[in-house]
Amino acid sequence: MQALTSYPHMLHGCDYNPEQWLNRPDILAQDIEQMKQANINCVSVGIFSWSSLEPREGDYQLDWLANIINKLYANGIYTVLATPSGAKPSWMAKKYPEIRRVSAERVRDLQGGRHNHCYTSPVYREKVRQINTKLAERFADHPAVILWHVSNEIQGECHCDLCQAAFREWLKKRYGSLDELNLAWWTTFWSHTYSDWDEIESPSPIGEPCIHGLTLDWKRFCTAQTRSFFENEIAPLKAANPDIPVTANFMGFYDGINYWELAKSLDVISWDSYPNWHTQPDGDETYNAFWADAFSDMCRSMLGKPFLLMENTPSQTNWMEVCRPKTWGFLRLTSIANLAHGADSIQYFQWRQSRGCAEKFHGAVMTHANRTDTRVFREVSGVGAMLKKLDGLCGAKTTANIAILYDLESHWAVNDAKGPRNGSIGDNDLMLRMYLPFWKAGYAVDFVNSEMDFSGCHLLLVPMLYMLRADVAKRIRDYVKQGGTVLLTLHTGLVDEHDLCYMGDTPAEGLAELAGIRFLETDPLYENQHETMRIVKAPFPLAESYKLERLCERVAAEGAEVLAVYEHDNPCMPDDLPCLTRSSFGRGTAYYLGAFAEDRFFSDFLISLAERLGIQPAIDTTFPHGVVAAARTGADGTKYYFVMNWTREQKSVNLPHPLKDFETGKVYQNKLPLGPYGAKILI
Ligand code: GLA
Ligand code: ZN
After folding, report:
1. Distances (CA, A) of 660 to 328, 481, 665
2. Which of 20, 250, 311, 361 to mutate to test the pocket of ligand 1 (most atoms within 8 A of CB)?
């Protein structure tokens, strides 16, 4: 696999805002020397620089940027060049009020903050096109520029009149007629039938909050509009030089827009990782670490290749409730974990702390003290020194035989529904519970959405696919028919793509038949309530029982073998209500899990199932608590193993085969020692 950019090395970089220091040439000169000392080989510049690039309308000032890019390049530092659209300049916001966003309550913003422009406004689109054209004309052929960083953390929605009009046009194309739309949205409910397109308004707390089809289509529209805005941004960049890849930095499990759709317009996926570290009194970071790696795996899965870690803090993140710095030695650990899950870069927010405004106390490589003899600086340089030796990891691939089906539209829909558990249906939680045991045991996992091909995986997990499209159901059935193994779960296959409930047996579209069960009713639980799953026929060694919470779904077995039943304390309830079933379908097998089981169940069940299916972890051993592993294979066939200790205790791993420490050359025959928060890359 190829490197992500024309610079075939692991990137070690940071957000760099020289425009804040243009009156301090001494600082700018120091920056370059200090960056070299920190082993920085690329910087992201131009993020939020619009008022310096175009201080007055049409007055483009790009020389300062050219000077910076040239000087950096002369010193071996490459540029990730950002477009400035993430923050609009004040002159523009004043002259063109239409570019300021309108909230769902229909209130137009004043100027301020960032990430708050209208995606529809023709004026803003034109202004963005113009500035991006200037940037592209000047820099697209500059050998220093290796990547376009488009805008910043693209997010949010606008409810202005322009957006409303665009939404109606989008709906007209989608439905053709109002009759079709009324039918799809079930608008006769509470007499909400539309008789004119102009009656349709985006969802609002002061207006229409209860037509689920409307809410869903509004979210789809916002994603489409954001993507078309993005396409407008990149058109001049691509016109100037189609070979420079484009990226947009994602924000973890942010669900305001559908990243999977936006990914279709990206050459490279990147994300900004800010877990809330050091929350536990015992220093055990295992449960903080895994969701970040899950999102990294998602990024890697979206385009089926490595991604860039665009931002992480070298020390503190100043917007958290308590802003604990990454503790001594921790940056190396988080960096190696990111590499392990597919990152081809470690980049920081930020190079230098600003003197004023909202992020002056955010962590940075250079603090206000302006010294390089700090422990953070040393740790950053250490990561850079390590990356310098890792050219072979560039573009290295991850092979996963397990896939988790994660459909963001289904996530939107299930969280918008009223009932059975309002505000805490927990679909993402269920997904992460399925991911966790594999992460702990070192199995690679891919994420797929409803559009993606999963036919090649050996084990498919389907956490709460509430909204089920007919074509996905068919592909799941075909996959199993041809020998695949699937785990279907509660609250799956209840509504179609309009969020209209399926009539007849569910899970719909033949999934009930596939699983050999039929949905009867849902019993949601309060936080302090639990039920128990009692195993009656263990397909492989399992505990006798497991705790259940949140949602217990009662199903009837119609052909499936019952593997576990609900244990309860209501004498009126039958004792043989299935909770876990197994069914053969074609050459494959379908399991159905009816309830939110505790982590221990997923760990026992899924790991045994993976073993049964012959799926191999990165390192075939039993890891002590808090120690995890992953692997990637380089273009020359070298296999890189990553082992991370998320605890502050000394640990030791039994190795099934000797491995060599990639940095020191030391060979570990059968025991690998790991210090507190230690991490190793082995080959
Ligand atoms: C986000 C933004 C950055 C910065 C950091 C601070 O990721 O992209 O501009 O504000 O947060 O953590
Ligand atoms: Zn708008």
Report:
1. 25, 43, 6
2. 311
